[in-house]
Amino acid sequence: MSELAAPLAMSLPAVVQHLQVLEASGLVRSEKVGRVRTCAIQPAALRAAETWIHERRLFWEHRLDQLGAFLAEQGDEDKGRTP
């Protein structure tokens, strides 16, 4: 674990806590042999997370595009009015 924490700007306990969350979510698997703990990314779980994030991004892009079109339409209507 200390090798994982070395390049990061956080303490070893913080890295361990983050890894525990990732392991509980199934994104990372760890195995302890003696005093050495090995961590491995689970590609299938990572793909599932990537798919979920992609779907949310598409949803919000669509909603924001609709909002942009609505606001542009409102601006056009305001330009046509006389004060």
TrEMBL record:
Tell me which SUPFAM superfamilies the record gives: Winged helix' DNA-binding domain
Molecular function (GO) terms for this protein are: DNA binding
- Which UniProt key words apply to this protein? DNA-binding
Matching Gene3D superfamilies, A to Z? Winged helix-like DNA-binding domain superfamily/Winged helix DNA-binding domain (1.10.10.10)
This one is known as DNA-binding transcriptional ArsR family regulator
Protein species of origin: Kaistia hirudinis
